[in-house]
Amino acid sequence: LEVVDYGGKEHLQLYRCGPKPSNFNTDLTELVLLRGAMHGKEQWVTSGILEMLCGLNKEAGRPLSVSALDLPVTTNGEGLAMAFDALSRGLLSGRPATFITPASSGIAVVNLAEKGGDSDYADLRRIIKAWVPIATKYINHVPLEALQQFKIAQIPVLSVTGDHDDVLGQHSGELLMAQANAKRVELEGGVRVHLDKPYDFVFEVLKFLDENNL
Predict the structure, then answer these.
(1) Is the pLDDT of residue 145 over 80?
(2) Rounded Cα gap, residues 170 and 175, in angstroms
(3) pLDDT band at 129 (very low <50, low <70, confident <90, very high)
(4) In whole angstroms, how large is the CA radius of gyration of the chain?
(5) DSSP structure string for the chain
């Protein structure tokens, strides 16, 4: 368990594994896992997902850095950017990373795509290399222009839904496919599909990384 200061008086707790960034591992794959509304960073530990991802450094010889954060689900794009910059002072390289966001934690990522104007969506491109949203009902309320920014910026998206999810959950996956050019996978489970089927979830994430040379 590590603690990082960000945003003045704020403290961010996280679990992490894998090599830290250096000038010698520029091919390092960096994954950032956010918490869900009902489950904190511990979900990644108790489900075995963190252990499976971390094991790839030894088993597959793949340089993979994984950080599981307890960033509040109410965090907006500005807060996500502050957390990313704080982590980039030693734990992340500062290069864009792949973000995995259960449920409403993905709102912070989408918020980066809503911040256009003079910045030309600079923070979206600076922070997000790829995005894996899970059970994303909130997508149904996001401006289509924001979702289209992922396609415009050529940011790969993997939408993960459960076959027991409701109509809104299913429709959000379809929206991401249509507007963000997302790949969609449906696993057995509901809104906690990554916790219902952790092995299948990790398999799909790794497949997605390989398909996009991430």
Answers:
(1) yes
(2) 9
(3) very high
(4) 16
(5) -EEEEETTTEEEEEEEESPPP-TT-TT-EEEEE---SS--THHHHHTSHHHHHHHHHHHT---EEEEEE---TT--HHHHHHHHHHHTTTTS-SS-EEEEEEGGGGHHHHHHHH--GGGTTHHHHHHEEEEEEES-GGGGGS-HHHHHHHHHTT--BEEEEETT--HHHHHHHHHHHHHH--EEEEESSSTTHHHHSHHHHHHHHHHHHHHTT-
From the number of C-beta atoms within 10 Å of its C-beta (0-12, 13-18, 19+), residue 181 rates as: middle
Those residues with Cβ within 8 angstroms of residue 153's Cβ, 6 or more apart along the chain or in another chain: 121, 124, 125
The tokens of 178 are what?
């249509």
pLDDT computed for residue 94 by the predictor: 92
pLDDT for the residue 120: 61
pTM: 0.92
- Predicted local confidence at residue 8, as pLDDT: 59
Q: Is the pLDDT of residue 10 over 70?
A: no
| Greater model confidence, 62 or 173 | 173
